[in-house]
Structures
1.
Amino acid sequence: MPQWMSKKLQPYGASIFATLGRVARERKCVNLGQGFPDFDGPEAVKEAARQAIAAGHNQYAPLPGVPPLSSALAEKYREEAGLDFDPQTEITVLNGSTEAMYATLTALLEPGDEVIVFEPIYDTYLPVIQMNGAKVVAVPLEAPAFAFDPDRLTKAFSAKTRAIIINTPHNPTGRVFSEAEMTQIQQLCIEHDVIAITDEVYEHLVFDGHRHIHMAALPGMRERTITISSTAKTFSLTGWKIGYTLAPPEATEAIRRMHQFIAFAVATPLQHGIAAALQQRNTLIPQLAEEMNSKRDFLCNALADIGFNVSVPQGTFFALADFSPFSSEKDLDYALTLLKSEVAVATIPISVFYQHQNEAPTNYLRFCFAKTDATLQAGVAQLRRLKN
Ligand code: GLN
């Protein structure tokens, strides 16, 4: 029999989202695990995509993206952050931020480079960095506040540091990096001539007066930052997989070169749909943020009432809950216990987001609150069984 999987891929298992998601579906659990809304995006946006199909926008899109979408993105960042990106040379539409991150890292990294990441680390970064022969240098976000130690960050930079990935609002902790934190990262990037790669997919899900800061908007960073974001979470359309990069022309050229070998283009009618969504962003986005805020409050209050120690998130649509009042099991075991017992609720254990599992906290589960009120109520009702 042939050996199918290459050695570079063998160290990495199936994603936790796929694995637990399958069990959750089989057992018909309430799924508060994988981060996706169980409700649809706005009707007007779906209609715009349907119209694009009817109007014949069904062949390959241009490699960088369809012009109405690139222009709408340029307009969004000009208005929101005072950032001017040239749609022709600086904006690229990709298949979700996952492809954007893969294309970016693969286009930039040389073997032996070091990439700084904050840990817990979103699950795709580490394999992609390592498969490119580069080294992950992790800086912990330590429980319970999930802030980083400024000295640890300073020490993480070396002559080999090529890039730092900044995921804020942060999945899974819900941290929104403060101005002081962003400024320290900015200064270190400039001092060490390091590229900042951002993952800002939760940029519009920020609560309690916290403010999302775009790294590219800080002085000296526009020319050394690759901004990655997506419209999946912003418009509750995760299945459309429309993500993008905003980057200086030479970086954009490298990303596009890579994209041409991965996917070449992104679904044409869906890009038109998202261009329409962006036209309406000033009504759609605040509505969504407000809805998510009340879902966050509902779930966090309920979890606290049941007895979890809840880390109320500053952003994203995830809340971490310390379950040590209920069990001393490790998080992965406890997540399976919850799935398979009469509680039947799916969550995500956070130790899977650590490079070295033995350094990971094992008492936190991640709950997703981007769910209908009915799903959240059903989940909470099931979790209340823990109280008895
Ligand atoms: N971003 C989603 C999450 O964190 C998962 C995406 C995926 O399943 N790959 O839950």
2.
Amino acid sequence: MLSDECIFCQIIRGERPSRKVYETETIYAFHDINPQAPTHILIVPKKHIARLADITPEDAPLLGEMMVAAKTIAEQEGVSSGFRLVINSGREAGQSVFHVHLHLLGGRRMRWPPG
Ligand code: DGP
């Protein structure tokens, strides 16, 4: 299910440009427009789910596929020796686009706590 107004759904449908790095039947991944690291990729399920807080047990395989995609993309982008995955769920956590997405960050030293 794709949502008309959602910008990530528009990217998935090809109605908004993106720099795609990976695509399967269920997942689409592209460069973040506002990169926070030398490598910053967004891994997005094609199914429209607003927040991680809205997933159901039926979504478990899809979330697993996102993790496998992250590993594959990290290798493809040359950052498999060290990368970070982030999901912001809810405005308080910093989520600004309400379509679940996994941030893949790499290419620089990461700090902890993330802030
Ligand atoms: P979050 O704050 O976790 O919801 O992350 C949303 C990310 O999406 C943010 O890092 C910027 C990125 N973003 C927003 N609009 C676009 C867009 O139109 N194209 C691309 N490539 N990235 C976008």
